[in-house]
């Protein structure tokens, strides 16, 4: 008990609370890193088969970015939590880099399902332009709010020896506004998917179309839930450390869903044609008639 008594006598309550928050942040960081690494190891065989046997396309490049940017996200987060960051400016630079990787990851995940929604609407150019323009506006607003929040936030470090890392705290409005924008965008996508499902459910009962529809709805359900939790986080939690956990969780879960679902769709299509045919998903041919796909 004596070391704890000495700690409480030597440091103020705020300093001890900051040290505890940094410890929680480190635990959260390692749990997220373990979660991401475990998922990668579980799917590495199928993933490398896809990377080696599918031909290069824009969708494949999008897959690689969506799959591997979270590794940079994790590495930056580990460095942020386990390196001595007594300089607030250095900490904010690391938070900016960390947030940039998070935004890239979320953008790539959403792009997958923008393309899928575009396919469900018979590859309508008008629909694609509308979706991409809306997504661009959402991402620009997301970046503007996120980085202005970082610039005006204050940085928490620890004066207690042995407690490393730092984290930033900002107002609740600055925190939940980007996720509110993302929530609205996801509501729009799920609405378009459901409308298309009701329009074509009698005509399109094929396997690929059904998988595509199920994937979209499940992804949107998870995305809406996670966005809603991030919006409500300032009400549910008083400690800003948990905001970071929820941000990380949303970025990781959506990246896993987007890449896993694309991988699953590729393997389903490949098995339908046999192992000798090198295929990827031909989004333009999956639409309402559910014609069997060739490749993108």
Quick structural summary:
By secondary structure, the protein is mostly helical.
Low-pLDDT stretches: 1-8, 274-296
Largest sheet: 2 strands, antiparallel
SSE pattern, N- to C-terminal: HHHHHEEHHH
Classification by helices and strands: mainly alpha
Provide mean pLDDT, rounded.
Answer: 77
Helical stretch tally: 8
Question: How large is the radius of gyration?
Answer: 22 Å
Beta strand count: 2
Task: Please explain how this structure is put together.
With 296 residues, the protein is an all-alpha fold. Helix content is 77%, strand content 2%. It has 8 helices and 2 strands; from the N terminus they run αααααββααα. The chain has helices at residues 2-10, 13-53, 58-82, 88-120, 125-152, 172-200, 207-236, 241-273; strands at residues 154-156, 167-169. It has a two-stranded antiparallel ribbon with strand order 1-2. α2 packs parallel to α8. Mean pLDDT is 77; it is low at 1-8 and 274-296.
Element layout with pairings:
Elements: H1 2-10, H2 13-53, H3 58-82, H4 88-120, H5 125-152, E1 154-156, E2 167-169, H6 172-200, H7 207-236, H8 241-273
Antiparallel strand pairs: 1-2
Helix pairs in contact: 2-3, 2-8, 3-4, 3-8, 4-5, 4-6, 4-7, 4-8, 5-6, 6-7, 7-8
């Amino acid at each position: 008990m004596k070391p704890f008594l000495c700690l409480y006598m030597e440091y103020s309550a705020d300093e001890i609370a900051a040290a505890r928050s940094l410890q929680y942040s480190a635990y959260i960081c390692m749990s997220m890193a373990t979660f991401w690494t475990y998922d990668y190891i579980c799917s590495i065989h199928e993933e490398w088969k896809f990377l080696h046997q599918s031909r290069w396309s824009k969708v494949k490049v999008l897959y690689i970015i969506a799959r591997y940017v979270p590794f940079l996200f994790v590495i930056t987060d580990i460095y942020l939590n386990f390196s001595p960051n007594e300089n607030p400016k250095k900490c904010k630079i690391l938070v900016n880099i960390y947030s940039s990787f998070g935004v890239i990851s979320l953008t790539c995940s959403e792009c997958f399902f923008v393309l899928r929604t575009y396919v469900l609407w018979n590859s309508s150019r008008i629909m694609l332009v509308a979706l991409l323009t809306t997504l661009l506006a959402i991402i620009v607003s997301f970046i503007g709010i996120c980085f202005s929040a970082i610039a005006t936030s204050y940085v928490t470090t620890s004066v207690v020896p042995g407690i490393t890392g730092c984290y930033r705290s900002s107002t609740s409005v600055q925190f939940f506004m980007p996720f509110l924008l993302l929530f609205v965008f996801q509501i729009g996508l799920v609405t378009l998917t459901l409308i298309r499902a009701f329009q074509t459910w009698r005509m399109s009962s094929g396997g690929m179309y059904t998988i595509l529809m199920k994937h979209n709805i499940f992804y949107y359900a998870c995305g809406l839930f996670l966005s809603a939790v991030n919006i409500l986080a300032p009400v549910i939690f008083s400690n800003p450390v948990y905001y970071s956990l929820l941000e990380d969780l949303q970025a990781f879960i959506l990246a896993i869903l987007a890449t896993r679902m694309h991988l699953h769709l590729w393997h389903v299509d490949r098995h339908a044609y046999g192992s000798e045919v090198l295929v990827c998903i031909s989004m333009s041919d999956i639409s309402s008639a559910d014609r069997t796909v060739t490749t993108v």
